[in-house]
Amino acid sequence: MITQWFFTHVDRRGGIAIALLVAIALLVPLSNLLLPQTSPLHIPTYLVSLIGKYLTYALLAVALDLVWGFCGILSLGHGAFFALGGYAMGMYLMRQIGPRGVYADPVLPDFMVFLNWKELPWFWHGFDNFWFAALMVVLVPGALAFGFGWLAFRSRVTGVYLSIITQALTYALLLAFFRNDMGFGGNNGLTDFKDILGFNIQAGTTRSMLFAATALFLALAVFVSSFIIRSKLGKVLVGVRDAESRMRFLGYRVDRYKLFVWTISAMMAGIAGALYVPQVGIINPSEFEPANSIEAVIWVAVGGRGTIIGPIIGAVLVNFGKTYFTAAFPEIWLFALGALFIIVTLFLPKGILGLYGSWRTKLADRAARKKDSAPPPVAAENVHLPEPQAAE
Amino acid sequence: MRLNRLLSVFILMLGFCCHIAQSNAQTVDDATLRPLVQALAGDNFENTTKAISDLVKTGDPRVSKILDALSAGDLYVAKADKTVFLGKRDGSDYAATDALTGAKLDPVPRSAAEKIKVNNRLRRDIAAAIGGLTLMSDNIAERRSAAEAILKTRDPESIPLLDQAIAVEKDAGVKALMQQAKAAAVLNSDAADDVKIAAITEVSAGNSRAALGLLTPLENVQGPVGEAAKAAIDSINTKLAFWNAIQNVVYGLSLGSVLLLAAIGLAITFGVMGVINMAHGEMVMIGAYTTFVVQQIIRTSAPGLFDYSLLIALPAAFLVSGGIGVVIERGIIRFLYGRPLETLLATWGISLVLQQAIRSWFGASNVQVGNPSWMAGSFDLGLLTLTWSRLWIIVFALSVFAILQLVLKKTMLGLRMRAVTQNRRMASSMGIRTPWVDALTFGLGSGIAGIAGVALSQIDNVSPNLGQGYIIDSFMVVVFGGVGNLWGTLVGAMSLGIANKFLEPFAGAVLGKIVVLVLIILFIQKRPRGLFALKGRAIEA
Q1: CA distance B197 to B200
Q2: Is A207 contained in some domain?
Q3: What is the pLDDT of residues A120-132, one digit of tens each?
């Protein structure tokens, strides 16, 4: 029953991905916690946190792909939603420090004592409660995305214009969060966390649990994305992506569809940020950097936009590359990343998964040709006719 | 109060002494001076007064030192030969130095010398004489600083001196300053009300901020003086507010010019090709580095040309950035037409590569780009002090704008570019080779960015991140102004610049910028295609 319901909403690839993620969520913590350190299968805690970080990036990429890959909205500001979710979680973690801070103030976080603040600003109230903070993790990015999207989509801001103002949005937030009097720790952001839900945040068990939570949330995101895409609403979204005006003429309220998926995506990004912060141990305004948001776009592009698991592959691969290069050849990393942007847009418009797909069709073609040795079919696919457009 | 005044006189005198010590005013030989110094030891005060004025008339710089000593009671006369010397008590003797030359003399027993007596009247004369010595100095800078010093101390004692000096002063600027000083001194004295009111008028005609300082203490004085002061303060405040607004506008225009320079190339490429060039900021950066390289070459091979280095750098930067632009267009962007979002990503990749290339080549830190002499310094406009670089950048941006307008309106390339902007397919059908127009447009836009880099190298740090700082602002200008029309870019850049500068005093630089960004995001809702949107069927694809 349940499996049948499940598979009506998820395709085979999505199913495999979800199964894999659930398996990882179980096996990695088990390996970290139960196997002895000498065992070749033991995963050290730092690696658990590192992969956990990649998976939060993957979650951000899935969220971005939902709007870009399926609805054609290229957001250059998804890092803002990610960071806002992260800040909401960071505020909870800050409140959990309590009197253990350097200044030992029972209520005020250290940076407020340092700034000579006498009481908690109003927007910090409630964040001592985990569930309130968890609610804010989705509500704040969701509300911002809703307001922004409502304004933007209703007045039909599309294409590069939209991309540019999403970038302006995250840039404005970057500037705002750098200010000390905003009450979010300014330049230094929020850090020095002690525990989460009563567990020591440095402990191996907590790290493993955070990892498991990330993997499970990622699985959930894959499911939700698939659910949306395979629904009728998803078909409309793809229609909007491919021919927005036509969908509008057909009578669909394009702006509402866009707004819905945009808000959902922002909430997912917020969750990704919230899972990122306890595993990395810090959140600061640099997360709002426009460059970060654009980097997230390349994860999606590398993996394959418009596929559900492509972004996960892209995010993990690119970030693995980043970790490796920035340690081994720091001066080469930007060349590599820049080249990646160029190569993927020029030669791999469908990303790695697209490459895999065309390779499979080619194999199938060859097999078919061998079978009946008929004249080869005209390879009509993958020919990109230049199609000039003014400003779409 | 009196102590204060004494102190101020003292400071004044000290100040004058320093001035005199530094200056090379006329000197008189010792033979003429010696008898005059001897005359100071006259037998009554009247003779001494006469001797003082004789000494002052010589204008010798040493005079003030001697008068100082006299006033302080350090001048002695030997009973035996009546020589005047500078003495200092040293046990039962005076350690003596020659009053004129400062040469050390034999110690004189205290009983063998007599102090030259001075009374208060004499002291006042001496102070006046010393002040007059500088106020009447031949050196214009000395006179100016003497007047400025009085303007600071506002000592009423110096009024008669100032009167004398004003009567003979020839330099208009110094004369005005002296009159200011006199008025300030009058306000500080117990002169009659009508004199004071005249002085208030005089003061408020001068430097407004200084005048505010002079008038504020008088504001609460009862009677006509207080009222006059209040009225003067009000009018000065209005004037200051006015000039403040002017300053905001001028600063805003210069910020707007920077934005215009950075954005105008972007507007062209975006207008013609519908392509957002994320590497545009790097073209600016490359222009700035070209300036650096040009200056390095000039420094080593032809230092005399340094003042022309910017003029040489302009075409160089245009060619380098423009050339790179054409290569990028031919090599990458032309394969991505019709896919603006992918173009955006690819150009972002290009920008990363260019940044890292410059960083590997020139290092990550700032390079020093020099200012030619005609960019340095400042000039006054009303109550404003403006740097030349600020003015030049406005002039430069407007000339670039004008030249670009000419290119677009009067050349064949411009005609084709406008045609492609309005309707690419139709232009292509009419025989315009749109790919070439694209390549040249991209080259032109990048070249303009390079030129902007030359200008920005004069006002900003030249580092590999230079372009990043401008890219978002340039986008905002283009989005705000609309594409396909350079006037939109001009109006967009200038209004953003001015809005930023007007918001800064209320909200601080950062918050002001945030407010502007938010306003633009809201503005886009009303005018999704910017202020000066192209109209027509071809635009909405």
Answers
A1: 5
A2: yes
A3: 889 999 898 999 9
